[in-house]
Amino acid sequence: MAGLELLSDQGYRLDGRKATELRKVQARMGVFAQADGSAYIEQGNTKALAVVYGPHEVRGSRSRTLNDRAVINCQYSMATFSTSERKRRPHGDRKSTEMSLHLKQTFEAAVLTNLYPRSQIDIYVKILQSDGGNYSAGVNAATLAVIDAGIPLRDYVCACTAGFVDETPLTDLCHAEESGGGTSLAMALLPRGGHIALLQMDARLHQDHLETLMEAAMTACKSISKVLDQVVRQHLQEVSALTGE
Amino acid sequence: MKDTPLSNCERDFLLNAIGEKRRLDGRQTYDYRNIKISFGTDYGCCFVDLGKTKVMAQVSCELITPKENRPNDGIMFFNIELSPMASPAFETGRQSELLVKLNRQLERCLRNSKCIDVESLCVVSGEKVWQIRVDVHLLNHDGNLMDAASIAAIAALSHCRRPDVGILGEDVTVYSPEERDPIPLSIYHMPISVSFAFFQQGTYLLVDPCDREERVMDGLLMIAMNKHREICSIQSSGGIMLLKDQVLRCSKIASVKVSEITELINKALENDKKVRKAGGRCGFAQSMPQERITALKADVSPVEMAGIKENANEIVQRAEAPSQSVPSPVLPAPGTGQVGEGLQTSWGLEEKEEEEEEEEEEEEDVQHVVEEQGRGDVVLISDSDSEEEEVVILNQEALPTKGTLSKQQRAADSKQQRAADSKQQRAADSKQQRAADSKQQRAADSKQQRAADSKQQRAADSKQQRAADSKQQRAADSKPQQKNKKQ
């Protein structure tokens, strides 16, 4: 799109942020009473909802039961009203399936599945409003939901997107920056050990810039982990105040 | 149809070998298998062999109306088909996770990296654009499908020629290949994917995993680059935890590999162009006499033979000699021996067993066995889970010593030996299926051999009988002769 400057000369982006500034993150846990764990997160204009059921007996095909650990079943979907143009998304389309696979892979690495053999943990993520960083918001919401459900995790799973414009890395991309055709890297990180659970990058980037970009993404993920940690502690305070401890 | 699960011992073997930096086919950690690229008779058809993985890509062009939000761009469509002929694990009709993953990876690798100029595919803005459709078919699955598919797709796109179009005002004429030469697509760069397999929670990594290695790996990292060292796509899959340094190291390795592979593709394209110019038969027509697709031939691979004798001698010397003594032969009944059960084999074997391992052990013990015969102190064993109907117990005197036994008795002894041996072996085996199968086999085989032996016995008997008869006959004949002589 000609005329849209992703990074102005003064260093401001389209929405007025600086290059490595994150959008405003607001989150709530325990949104639904029916589910074992639920969470809602807003990253700028991107709104994601995650719900966790489990651990419970393996539903559907018994053959999927694993003897030594739990099966994680993920489903990622976008609401039809989430984008600027209403699009009816059939559930089995390729992009949703790919995102579901990525979610599953991320959480299989993070959840201590060997504590729940022969059971299944369901994670459902729905994007209510999409403005860039859909997958990242989904992962962050899912982390909070898993914590809300009381399922033990190795570490917070924080995800963030990063891009590269004019030799500068940008973090937490919005929709215009993502679809502008430049590089966009999505990373899911376990901040304490620096382990990368998922790494996904599109569009061309010279090899020499890879390190800078990954560093920027890792820093952004660590900042998000601090925010998530704060949300969890606050929620715990609220709940314990209600139960009178 | 489900794929055969990998047995635990095979898995352990592979992981241990990888821990010692050895691969099944003898490659080094960063080595690719042999890549063969060949083109078909039509433009846009490409066959790629990555070791035993065979992939075919075909590019086709069609004029359609463009998308509303992009009226000036042509459309690229990628499709990977996993046909059941490639592997018993693939089923027609069902969209498996692997299929979605491969399709999305190929799309992201080729479409998002903008390797093809889509604006040049526009014919009439908003009305007619070219749709380039790349169909990749998997013909044989031996690991690393993504790399093979990406090489095949980009080679086919480079090879493809689309028909020329002429525009006169509103009319669009598509010229057939005979009227006007078809024009190649404008390709900016060639993104090629390199796959890294991780084992033991990221301690070891291998490039270009084969099918067996893929089954035991923890996860896969796919990096797509072009020869200008631009990364086109990175995708990590499987539940692996990566570190930043690992990813950077992999990208360096990938850049080296990609430049090699790009050269290979260019060379193949050059060759094909030359052959076509010279008017020779090219592509598919040549594949039969040259046995390119039809044969699963392995290339002649050199084997390091220097110093192999010394190595072998060393190994033999280092191997433990079988122990000379037996603590006390625990025999189930007087006259029978015991094989296995942790003790020295005390039974001489003259016949071949099905299990090669036991055979080797026992062959070494045969000499010692012959000397140990006739020892006293026989202890009866209470447990006998023999499934044999007949367990014949030999007498002490009838133990095999060379020369004293008649052929009959030796045959009978060996028969009982085998029965006792197989009984003991069955007792010693664990409850794995393999043991059960070989058990059945041995029962069947020993039964057959017993039948054969009894046949031999009867033949021997009848021979002896005939010998005896003829002797008598001659005696009888000679008697009257003598009588006659005397008279």
From TrEMBL, chain A:
<dbReference type="GO" id="GO:0005730">
    <property type="term" value="C:nucleolus"/>
</dbReference>
<dbReference type="GO" id="GO:0005737">
    <property type="term" value="C:cytoplasm"/>
</dbReference>
<keyword id="KW-0007">Acetylation</keyword>
<keyword id="KW-0963">Cytoplasm</keyword>
<keyword id="KW-0698">rRNA processing</keyword>
<dbReference type="InterPro" id="IPR015847">
    <property type="entry name" value="ExoRNase_PH_dom2"/>
</dbReference>
<keyword id="KW-0694">RNA-binding</keyword>
<dbReference type="InterPro" id="IPR001247">
    <property type="entry name" value="ExoRNase_PH_dom1"/>
</dbReference>
<dbReference type="GO" id="GO:0006364">
    <property type="term" value="P:rRNA processing"/>
</dbReference>
<dbReference type="GO" id="GO:0005654">
    <property type="term" value="C:nucleoplasm"/>
</dbReference>
<protein>
    <recommendedName>
        <fullName>Exosome complex component RRP41</fullName>
    </recommendedName>
</protein>
<dbReference type="GO" id="GO:0000178">
    <property type="term" value="C:exosome (RNase complex)"/>
</dbReference>
<comment type="similarity">
    <text>Belongs to the RNase PH family.</text>
</comment>
<dbReference type="InterPro" id="IPR020568">
    <property type="entry name" value="Ribosomal_Su5_D2-typ_SF"/>
</dbReference>
<comment type="subunit">
    <text>Component of the RNA exosome core complex (Exo-9), composed of EXOSC1, EXOSC2, EXOSC3, EXOSC4, EXOSC5, EXOSC6, EXOSC7, EXOSC8 and EXOSC9; within the complex interacts with EXOSC2, EXOSC7 and EXOSC9. The catalytically inactive RNA exosome core complex (Exo-9) associates with the catalytic subunit EXOSC10/RRP6. Exo-9 may associate with DIS3 to form the nucleolar exosome complex, or DIS3L to form the cytoplasmic exosome complex.</text>
</comment>
<dbReference type="InterPro" id="IPR027408">
    <property type="entry name" value="PNPase/RNase_PH_dom_sf"/>
</dbReference>
<feature type="domain" description="Exoribonuclease phosphorolytic">
    <location>
        <begin position="155"/>
        <end position="219"/>
    </location>
</feature>
<dbReference type="GO" id="GO:0003723">
    <property type="term" value="F:RNA binding"/>
</dbReference>
<keyword id="KW-0271">Exosome</keyword>
<dbReference type="Pfam" id="PF01138">
    <property type="entry name" value="RNase_PH"/>
</dbReference>
<dbReference type="Pfam" id="PF03725">
    <property type="entry name" value="RNase_PH_C"/>
</dbReference>
<dbReference type="InterPro" id="IPR050080">
    <property type="entry name" value="RNase_PH"/>
</dbReference>
From TrEMBL, chain B:
<dbReference type="InterPro" id="IPR015847">
    <property type="entry name" value="ExoRNase_PH_dom2"/>
</dbReference>
<dbReference type="Pfam" id="PF01138">
    <property type="entry name" value="RNase_PH"/>
</dbReference>
<keyword id="KW-0694">RNA-binding</keyword>
<dbReference type="InterPro" id="IPR033100">
    <property type="entry name" value="Rrp45"/>
</dbReference>
<dbReference type="GO" id="GO:0006364">
    <property type="term" value="P:rRNA processing"/>
</dbReference>
<feature type="compositionally biased region" description="Basic and acidic residues">
    <location>
        <begin position="366"/>
        <end position="375"/>
    </location>
</feature>
<feature type="domain" description="Exoribonuclease phosphorolytic">
    <location>
        <begin position="189"/>
        <end position="255"/>
    </location>
</feature>
<protein>
    <recommendedName>
        <fullName>Exosome complex component RRP45</fullName>
    </recommendedName>
</protein>
<dbReference type="GO" id="GO:0005737">
    <property type="term" value="C:cytoplasm"/>
</dbReference>
<dbReference type="InterPro" id="IPR036345">
    <property type="entry name" value="ExoRNase_PH_dom2_sf"/>
</dbReference>
<keyword id="KW-0963">Cytoplasm</keyword>
<keyword id="KW-0539">Nucleus</keyword>
<dbReference type="GO" id="GO:0005730">
    <property type="term" value="C:nucleolus"/>
</dbReference>
<keyword id="KW-0271">Exosome</keyword>
<feature type="compositionally biased region" description="Basic and acidic residues">
    <location>
        <begin position="410"/>
        <end position="477"/>
    </location>
</feature>
<dbReference type="Pfam" id="PF03725">
    <property type="entry name" value="RNase_PH_C"/>
</dbReference>
<dbReference type="GO" id="GO:0003723">
    <property type="term" value="F:RNA binding"/>
</dbReference>
<keyword id="KW-0698">rRNA processing</keyword>
<feature type="compositionally biased region" description="Acidic residues">
    <location>
        <begin position="351"/>
        <end position="365"/>
    </location>
</feature>
<dbReference type="InterPro" id="IPR050590">
    <property type="entry name" value="Exosome_comp_Rrp42_subfam"/>
</dbReference>
<dbReference type="GO" id="GO:0000178">
    <property type="term" value="C:exosome (RNase complex)"/>
</dbReference>
<feature type="domain" description="Exoribonuclease phosphorolytic">
    <location>
        <begin position="32"/>
        <end position="163"/>
    </location>
</feature>
